[in-house]
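Quick one, tokens below:
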């Protein structure tokens, strides 16, 4: 998969040569803070300043101290090489794997857990020094927290390393050779030894070894698609044709491919100074932006840490003021902070992101960075490249014009349903010209490959015509054999036509057939007749006007139009043995018969219009950013729905009202097509105005620097920007975007390495799937955090009440750990499998500064509503257990000090009953009414007053508290399935993982109580069966209360209730 596959034709698979660029992931590190570097980055963003295309050959020879006849001397070349360095891009600095691993260990939640572990070890040190038996609880807790961080960090590192390895598998370039003129001799040297001033020769199939100024050429065409996005081959000659060096014909760029012809040129830039080198430097100067989910997790960590420290410090002050010892108060402080740390959440978030990444991989989205999964869901603007992303990345016949009518061809991926009329004699003549006047050929050995997937040797237009002919006519190569070619004039930029002469397969007609194709206006001017319904008719003004109308109509749709004509040469003038000479042209090339027009376009993918519509309904703005021509870009944008059918640009309004464009108010136009030349002169404010005031935008003829500027403009609107691209020219913008999305098939290595996500099928529609998955993961993380935070109150309140009222500790740190990393971990992960709610793709994208992962509503609802209900239920169970053993709540107040005193063995319970330990015997003292005492003794399972027995009762109460939280968390888990819809709308059984989670909660609780409980190793004890049901009404109440909340949210959207109760 890593290697760019040979698909369609030469002009496309030529881009695999770009792999030399190899912009490794780690090259794009944030380089801010260095003023010099910052200035360099700003310089790189400026448009290319180059004047070598304007200079004459003599001026260039003088500038570079070279000669076009002799080239450089070996000595001079060595001097320049020593000065400028090799003709190669500066290799990227890579981050050591250990640094990557350590980053996983200390980012986001991890730092909170490390702090928790450190505090536990400090508490252990204090308690151990005081000789307290509970000291080791804190040691174990700290070790467990550290292990949680290490294991989840290793898991996250492994997940991302897998994607990185896939990236690393993309093949590297083989060292390239270049044919150079030195010391008046032609030599083949390694391309990295080239220097400015060298004279090099290139031919079809070569990769351009440096930026070169063309000195001479013959039929030279290059594939610039990786730089400009144009899928059409560009001719190269020594002619200065445009002020913009990227547009002029006399410069060929490093890493582009020569498709056909030959050329000689002078090297004017090497290595990092080439256009590709500048793009690489531009990309390396772009900092790695924090992903939205990373920002949200950081925000959440700040909230949790703030709450924990605030409550901890507050109760530290309260404890000291209540005359607790300072060291004891510090232990309380640490206990409160640790109780606030959601230990299991780090593992849950990592697993949830990994599950989604795995799901997306099945849908052809390879996620390189786990956090990028959610970023796609937050996306509010998609800046999409045109060629290969929105389109099929292959020229295809779109329309035909013959017999004075326009016919549409099938432009789908397989082209199996051609519906135009194929019975006309004109069509048969046109089909023959298309098949014969074509130099493209299928590579041999592809008979069993579908026609549209076959590799073709030839340029994009000829490839399109060959495949079209093969689909409609059958075996084109056989047709060519039967109509042998006897002479040919290839297409050139001067004549703008291609001509060939053939023997025909008609045994009764011995005449030669001359066929010609080319620029329509050039073809028409060579014709005197036009074929209508298979018959030649004189070419009059009416027919010429019909031709002009059709030509303008097809050209206006952004299609490349070719004209076709033919002539049967008279047999008496051109017998079988006639020696055709294409240099002197001893045959007619005028008074031909015009047959028809064909137009080609790189057609949109069939799935794109629907995907764009889904983006619109999800509130996502799709902007096309392409290097292609504005007319073509606008036509494709209209066909896929980026510009809707009813929207007008200022040009459309001016045309409709028949007024100059300057008189149109720009605010009246919903759509805008912005040319790169206009963008070049715009200020940031003008660009912001376009982005703000137009909902449908196309940027055409853009340079790599401009793509980066457009992305930055979108980010200034507080938008989360996704950028798609496949060429080297896209890599800076891919890196700058909040999420860069590269193409897996047509993408260059530079684009793949700069991106956060790779579309393995190059399909824009896969992005929409990714958006839905991204939104779903954000929803599910919100639900998971709400679920996890709820029981934090039930874990925290026991510490607070323990400090304030001095009751026996209701729940210990080890028990809390079993909730966070035991009963709650599987249900938390199960929420990652929850299906999307019905409105997920109808909501607006979340605002990254307003719509937080953890907001006030979530905190209030989880902590102060559901959390308080859970706490009340758990305390009811706790006090019931103690009351059953003779300790009513009033008696437990302020009993902590004597209760925890291991020497005190003569405590009195609520019924005035005392047990005293004498030697090894327990003596029963009645100091209350005998009836009451005997009533109590009938209900005891064990004596209660010795320290060991009090400790056993405390564990009993702690186990009951744990069981109550577990049962209430089952209800909490079920209500978290949805945030707005009723549970019954969502379906109780759609997510089977939830039921696995519930089963795991009960299994773990039962095992702890009745398995390990009998041994008291973990401070759990076997619990009376009826204690399991005390919290059940609270669980039911949680469910009913939440259904009522959701009902009012749905009934009264926008109300106070909706704003404050919807999290």
């Amino acid at each position: 998969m890593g290697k760019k596959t040979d698909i369609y034709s030469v002009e496309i698979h030529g881009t695999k040569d770009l792999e030399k660029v190899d912009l490794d992931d780690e090259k794009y590190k944030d380089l801010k803070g260095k003023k010099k570097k910052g200035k360099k980055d700003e310089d790189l963003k400026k448009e290319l300043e180059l004047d070598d295309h304007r200079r004459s050959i003599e001026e260039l020879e003088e500038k570079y101290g070279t000669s076009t006849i002799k080239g450089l001397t070996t000595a001079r070349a060595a001097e320049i090489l020593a000065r400028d360095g090799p003709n190669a891009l500066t290799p990227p600095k890579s981050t050591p794997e250990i640094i990557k691993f350590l980053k996983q260990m200390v980012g986001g939640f991890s730092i909170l857990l490390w702090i928790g572990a450190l505090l536990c070890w400090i508490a252990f040190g204090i308690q151990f020094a005081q000789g307290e038996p509970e000291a080791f609880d804190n040691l174990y807790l700290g070790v467990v927290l550290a292990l949680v961080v290490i294991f989840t960090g290793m898991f996250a590192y492994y997940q991302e390393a897998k994607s990185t390895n896939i990236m690393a598998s993309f093949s590297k370039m083989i060292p390239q050779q270049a044919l150079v003129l030195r010391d008046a001799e032609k030599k083949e040297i390694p391309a990295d030894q080239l220097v400015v001033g060298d004279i090099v020769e290139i031919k079809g199939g070569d990769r351009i070894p440096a930026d070169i100024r063309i000195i001479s050429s013959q039929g030279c065409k290059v594939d610039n698609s990786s730089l400009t996005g144009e899928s059409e081959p560009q001719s190269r000659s020594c002619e200065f044709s445009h002020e913009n060096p990227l547009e002029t014909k006399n410069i060929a760029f490093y890493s582009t491919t020569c498709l056909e012809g030959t050329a000689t040129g002078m090297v004017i830039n090497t290595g990092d100074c080439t256009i590709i080198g500048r793009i690489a430097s531009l990309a390396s100067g772009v900092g790695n932006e924090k992903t939205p989910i990373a920002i949200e997790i950081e925000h959440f960590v700040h909230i949790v840490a703030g709450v924990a420290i605030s409550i901890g410090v507050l109760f530290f002050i309260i404890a000291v003021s209540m005359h607790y010892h300072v060291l004891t108060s510090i232990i309380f402080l640490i206990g409160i902070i640790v109780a606030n740390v959601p230990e299991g959440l780090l593992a849950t978030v990592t697993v949830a992101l990994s599950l989604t990444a795995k799901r997306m991989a099945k849908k052809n989205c390879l996620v390189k960075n786990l956090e990028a999964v959610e970023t796609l869901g937050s996306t509010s603007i998609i800046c999409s490249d045109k060629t290969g992303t929105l389109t099929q990345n292959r020229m295809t016949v779109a329309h035909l014009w013959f017999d004075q009518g326009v016919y549409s061809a099938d432009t789908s991926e397989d082209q199996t349903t051609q519906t135009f009329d194929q019975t006309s004699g004109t069509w048969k003549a046109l089909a023959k010209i298309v098949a014969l006047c074509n130099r493209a050929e299928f590579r041999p050995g592809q008979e069993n490959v579908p026609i549209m997937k076959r590799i073709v040797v030839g340029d994009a237009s000829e490839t399109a015509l060959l495949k079209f002919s093969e689909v409609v006519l059958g075996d084109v190569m056989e047709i060519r054999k039967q109509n042998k070619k006897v002479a040919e004039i290839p297409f050139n930029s001067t004549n703008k036509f291609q001509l060939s002469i053939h023997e025909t397969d008609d045994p009764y007609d011995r005449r030669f057939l001359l066929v010609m194709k080319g620029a329509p206006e050039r073809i028409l001017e060579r014709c005197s007749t036009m074929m209508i319904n298979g018959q030649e008719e004189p070419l009059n003004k009416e027919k010429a006007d019909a031709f002009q109308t059709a030509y303008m109509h097809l050209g206006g749709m952004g299609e490349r139009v070719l004209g076709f004509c033919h002539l049967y040469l008279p047999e008496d003038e051109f017998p079988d043995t006639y020696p055709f000479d294409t240099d002197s042209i001893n045959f007619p090339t005028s008074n031909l018969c015009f047959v028809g027009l064909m137009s080609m376009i790189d057609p949109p993918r069939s799935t794109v219009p629907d995907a764009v519509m889904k983006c619109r309904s999800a509130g996502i703005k799709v902007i096309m950013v392409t290097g292609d021509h504005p007319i073509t870009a606008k036509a494709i944008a209209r066909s896929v729905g980026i510009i809707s059918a009813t929207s007008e640009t200022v040009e459309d309004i001016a045309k409709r009202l028949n007024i100059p464009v300057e008189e149109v108010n720009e605010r009246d136009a919903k759509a805008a097509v912005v040319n790169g030349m206009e963008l070049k002169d715009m200020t940031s404010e003008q660009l912001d105005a376009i982005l703000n005031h137009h909902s449908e935008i196309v940027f055409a003829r853009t340079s790599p620097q401009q793509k980066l500027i457009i992305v930055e403009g979108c980010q200034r609107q507080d938008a989360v920007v996704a950028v798609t691209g496949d060429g080297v020219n896209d890599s800076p913008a891919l890196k700058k975007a909040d999420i860069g999305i590269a193409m897996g098939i047509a993408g260059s290595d530079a684009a793949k390495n700069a991106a956060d996500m790779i579309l393995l099928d190059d399909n824009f529609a896969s992005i929409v799937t990714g958006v839905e998955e991204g939104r779903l993961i954000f929803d599910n993380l919100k639900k998971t955090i709400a679920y996890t935070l709820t029981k934090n109150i039930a874990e925290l309140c026991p510490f607070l009440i323990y400090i304030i009222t001095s009751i026996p500790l209701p729940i210990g740190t080890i028990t809390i750990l079993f909730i966070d990393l035991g009963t709650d971990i599987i249900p938390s992960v199960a929420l990652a499998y929850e299906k999307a709610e019905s409105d997920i793709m109808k909501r607006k994208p979340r605002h990254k500064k307003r719509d937080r992962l953890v907001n006030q509503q979530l905190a209030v609802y989880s902590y102060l509503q559901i959390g308080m209900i859970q706490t009340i239920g758990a305390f009811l169970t706790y006090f019931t257990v103690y009351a059953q053993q003779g300790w009513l709540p009033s008696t437990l107040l302020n009993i902590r000090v004597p209760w925890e005193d291991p020497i005190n063995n003569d405590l009195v319970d609520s019924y005035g009953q005392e047990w005293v330990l004498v030697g090894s015997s327990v003596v029963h003292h009645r100091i209350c009414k005998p009836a009451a005492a005997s009533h109590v003794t009938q209900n005891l399972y064990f004596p209660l007053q010795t320290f060991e027995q009090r400790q056993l009762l405390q564990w009993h109460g702690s186990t009951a508290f744990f069981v109550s939280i577990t049962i209430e968390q089952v209800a909490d888990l079920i209500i978290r399935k949805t945030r707005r819809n009723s549970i019954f709308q969502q379906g109780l059984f759609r997510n089977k993982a939830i039921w696995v989670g519930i089963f795991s909660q009960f299994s773990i609780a039962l095992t702890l109580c009745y398995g390990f409980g009998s041994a008291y190793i973990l401070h759990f004890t076997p619990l009376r069966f009826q204690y399991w049901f005390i919290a059940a009404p609270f669980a039911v109440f949680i469910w009913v209360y939440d259904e009522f909340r959701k009902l009012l949210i749905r009934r009264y959207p926008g109300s106070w209730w909706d704003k404050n109760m919807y999290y």
